[in-house]
Design brief:
- With 477 residues, this protein is an alpha+beta fold.
- It contains 7 helices and 25 strands.
- A hairpin with a 2-residue loop joins strand 22 and strand 23.
- It is elongated and about 215 Å long.
- The two termini are 76 Å apart.
Length: 477
């Protein structure tokens, strides 16, 4: 077959022209077919898109008189605790195995024993001096008795000498006695009187000597008490029943006066200084119940009562302090064992807690389920021409309420009280009879068309088994 290069020029031009003509005809036919199809296509009919309604569960708001609740924060502390220090200087010679931090201890149980040799000797020395002083007092008593006997004899001698002297004087008046007889009789009388006076003087010193000895004995008895107390202080015992926080003294260690030995904490009575807003002072009274819970993720909950109220408020934090007492089970507190699952743990000193004070002061408030809140806003139903739509409104919380209101919601126990009055001179958007949404909050948007069911109907066996179940089954309707 001959190639194009071998053909004459005229034939090559004719071949190219025929190919171009065939392509143009094909393109024209295609364009014609396309135009025919476009011209004969049917026009589509447009229909309005139907908006689907999201099913939600609602609660109808009502005003109820509930007790005012206040929330505060505080750190627990033990009402009874003891920091033990050494009251005498001595070396540690005994520490029982039970004296370890974290173990329970009974009242008067030994924690640390000190060397008592020197203090025992001091007690014996003072006791010996007291016995010696007592012997001197007894000897002084015997001496007093002897002196009194001698004084009695001396008085008799003076009486005899006086009678003899009177007789001689009478005889001398009659001339029957000489001057020598008179002088001799007077000298005997004076000698008897001097002997009696000397005995009187000795007897008079007895009370002073006895007083000095009694004072000495009193001082020695006081010294004995001090020595005995120092001897007793060599045994450092628990002043209260509780738990040993820590024992610092080790066997062989020389303790000086004031050295820390141990710390004992009684867990049966705990106090929490709870700081609440100053405005709570007008409604909180002594004896009001307080529910405490741990600020951590633990499930600890404790019930206490307001025992005292501080007379002054803190101007910086605008709070007032309520003192809450919590009494714990003695066995659980002493043993400090964590209870079995479902039981109450022990409230420990130093633990930070959140307290809710349930006052006896009641107030008329609107109750909104806590589950209805998204931050500080809730969704309510607003009726439109085409049906109810979701409307987000801001709301100011007053205080939490933990109670059951079957007429509002058969199963809900966590509520928030809101003020049904005005804010900044304008009525609040929520009021009695309004319905707030408590389910499918994540899917709600402002103005979204919704189909609502009342929570009381839902839990009573109406549409859906539960708000969440009804919402999930109807969400695509």
């Amino acid at each position: 077959m001959a190639r194009d290069g071998d053909r004459p020029p005229l034939l090559r031009v004719a071949s190219l022209a025929s190919r171009i003509t065939a392509g143009a005809v094909t393109l024209a036919v295609a364009i014609g077919i396309a135009g025919f199809l476009i011209g004969t296509r049917p026009e589509p009919t447009s229909e309005p898109r139907e908006e689907s309604a999201l099913f939600v569960s609602t609660v109808r708001l009502e005003a109820r008189a509930v007790n005012r609740a206040w929330t505060g924060y505080g750190v627990a502390r033990a009402m009874n605790e003891a920091d033990l220090t050494a009251q005498v200087s001595a070396r540690v010679v005994e520490r029982p195995e039970s004296a370890e931090g974290g173990l329970p201890i009974e009242r008067d149980a030994l924690i640390v024993g000190l060397d008592k040799t020197d203090y025992d000797a001091a007690v014996q020395s003072v006791q010996a001096r007291i016995r010696a002083t007592g012997a001197q007092i007894e000897e002084l008593g015997a001496r007093e008795r002897r002196l009194r006997d001698q004084v009695e004899l001396a008085e008799q001698q003076v009486e005899l000498a006086q009678r003899e002297y009177d007789r001689v004087v009478a005889a001398a008046d009659r001339g029957a006695a000489t001057t020598t007889d008179l002088e001799r009789s007077e000298s005997s009388l004076r000698s008897a009187e001097r002997a009696a006076a000397a005995l009187y003087e000795m007897l008079d010193t007895i009370p002073a000597q006895r007083a000095r000895l009694e004072a000495t004995r009193l001082a020695e008895q006081a010294e004995l008490r001090t020595a005995a107390e120092n001897l007793a202080r060599t045994e450092i015992r628990a002043p209260i029943a509780g738990m040993l926080q820590e024992v610092f003294a080790e066997p062989g260690e020389l303790l000086m006066v004031g050295a820390p030995v141990a710390r004992v904490v009684d867990l049966t009575l705990i106090e929490v200084p709870l700081r609440v807003p100053v405005s709570a002072a007008d409604s909180v009274t002594l004896g009001d119940a307080v529910v405490l819970r741990s600020d951590s993720n633990s499930a600890g909950r404790w019930t206490g009562t307001v025992s005292r109220i501080a007379p002054e408020a803190d101007a910086a934090s605008r709070t007032v302090t309520l003192f809450v007492e919590v009494r714990q089970e003695v066995q659980a507190a002493i043993d400090a064992r964590r209870p079995a699952p479902g039981g109450e743990p022990v409230l420990l000193p130093g633990q930070f807690v959140v307290g809710e004070v349930q006052t006896t002061h009641s107030a008329e408030v609107l109750l909104v389920p806590r589950s209805a809140f998204q931050g500080d806003r809730v969704f309510m139903l607003r009726e439109q021409d085409d049906g109810p739509r979701a409307h987000s409104v801001p709301i100011r919380r007053l205080f939490p309420v933990e109670a059951s209101f079957p007429g509002l919601h058969p199963a809900e126990t966590q509520w928030v009280a809101v003020d049904p009055g005005t804010r900044a001179g304008k009525p609040v958007e929520l009021g009695v009879g309004d319905r707030v949404v408590i389910s499918n909050l994540a899917e709600l948007q402002e103005g979204l068309l919704i189909r609502a069911g009342d929570a009381t109907d839902v839990f009573a066996g109406g549409e859906g088994a539960s708000p969440s179940g009804a919402a999930s089954s109807e969400a695509g309707s």
